[in-house]
Structure formats: C-alpha cells, structure tokens
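ok so i was messing around last nite and threw this chain in just to see what happens. nothing serious, just curious
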Amino acid sequence: MPIALITGITGQDGSYLAEYLLGLGYEVHGTSRDPEAARLHPNIASCASRLRLHALSLERPAAIADLLGNHRFDEIYHLAAQTHVAESFKNPIDTFEFNTLGTIRLLEAVRSIHPATRIFHAASSQVFGNSSATVQTEDTPFRPMNPYGVSKAAAAEMVRIHRDAYRLFAVNGICYNHESPRRGPEFVTGKICRAAAAFRTGRTEPLLVGDVRAQRDWGDARSFVRGFHASLQASAPSDYIFATGILHSVRDVLQQAFEAVGLHWEDWVRHDTSLLRPAEPPPAAGDPSRAAKLLGWQNSTSFEQLIREMTLAHLPAAGPTTAS
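result:
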C-alpha cells in the first residue's frame, strides 16, 4: 500500500485528493495545526475515519524532520499555503514565511531524510503576473505582480533547484484557478455562488463585487487533483500547467450562477471599489498541453456545469443571513 502525505488536507484540493488517493488504495496522512479540529472539518467528513492526521507547523523544521523521520512517505503533496492575493498585500512577510520558507523546509527535510520520496508542490498561475504571453506555458518567464505570486514563484524555483541539484523527484503543478462546491466564500466564485443561492431563498442584502470584467482560466478542482497524482506517477519529474486554456470573466460567473437559480444578477449585485486589487494581472490562459501529452490529463467539467453545480450545492443551506 503506497503511503501519501497531504499538507493542507482540509482545504478544497487536499480533501478531494485525500478521497481520490483512498479510492486508489493509498494510506493517507494529513497535516494540520490542530488535528482534532481538522478531523471535524466538513471537507473531510466522508473520509476522516480513514485518515491519519498529524500536528505540524511548517515554521518548525524540527517538527517536519520528526514527521518524516517517523513515517516513510512514498509521496508528499504540498498543498498548504496562504492562498489569498488580497491578504498577501496586507501580510507579505507572513505570506513569504509560510509559502516560500515552509516549502524550502519541507524540501530540505525530504532531501536529508528520505530523498526517494516524490514531492508535489502546488504552484500558482500568479507566478506569471505581468506576462506578455496571452497563453502561458511552463517556459513562460515568471513576472509576479503581488506578494502571493512572489512567494509562489520563489517556492517553485526552489523546487526546481532541488530537482536539478539534488535529483529529487520534485514537481511544480502550476495551477490556474480551480473551483468546486467546496470553494470557500473568501474566493470570488464561492462568494458569488453562495450569494445566488441565498437570494433564491430570501436574502435581500446586495452582493458587493469588484471588477466584473476581470478574467480568469477556471477549471474543476476534482480534475486538478487527479493531475497532481498523475504527475508523481510519471517516469521523470517535470513541471506541469493545470488549466483549461479558456478565459471567463467574473461577469460570466455571475451570469451562470444567477441563471442556475432563475435570477438576473444585475438586480442583486453592486460594484464596490474597495474590493479592487492594487494590481491586476493582464488576462491570460494556461496551456495544459504538456500535462495532456505526458500525463493524459484534461479538465473534465465545463465552466458552465461547474458554476451551476457550485450554486445549486448551496441551495439547501442558503438563507437570508448568508454572508456576502
């Protein structure tokens, strides 16, 4: 039975990956600052009894070394991160500490203790930032525009260095936006889909959004985690873009979400300039052809299907007090 460790196991990606690996017969371990609280998290409710959870702070190298010294993991999926762009502007030092230094500490522990362990690092399309490429590949130069993108770019480069210098089987998965019914309300898609469902069941407070013209390449998180796993089964390590190659706007998300519940979004949405980012990268899609060719991977759900599913998933629990 292969043994996998997932950092950030209660998040959207971590929880879907845990379920997927369990279905493949893996023994799955996960990390959290508070394992007992994590075991009660709704994202892993369906499989918590089958998981082995460990307390871990990525700020503590000794704790990482102890965990890896006590368990010989075949694969590590490093998904834990500070993932919010707006928060990274507020707390750039904490973002760099967690996303970059935490990744380096994990890489160093793998190199020192079990160098045969295969490690996947969830990078981000934000590493490309102010790129001149309208379709980005694994060879597109990094030009991040926000502290989150800088932290992920630095972490991705350290993954490459450990792969090249120390021959670790280390992979960067450069992930474009990916969503699911488990996407939290702190993300614009989760916020919109929850609000649309809430308006259908009685909410009256307007939904506040920033730039509805902003465009992203949005895929399905459940497809993405299958790509994460496939990348560690390849014969050699590489970096892969996980994306759809198609751009949609925030306006498109609003239209699909509100149509799913029979409403017109213009009747319920108000523009709020305070929600605009200090710097917005130009619209660009990801080219997933390397993942398609080498891993046989593709995004499995259309944008329209995904947003509809995300919205309808919140109908039973939605109500007039749902937060915007």
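not much to say yet. The two ends are 44 Å apart (CA to CA).
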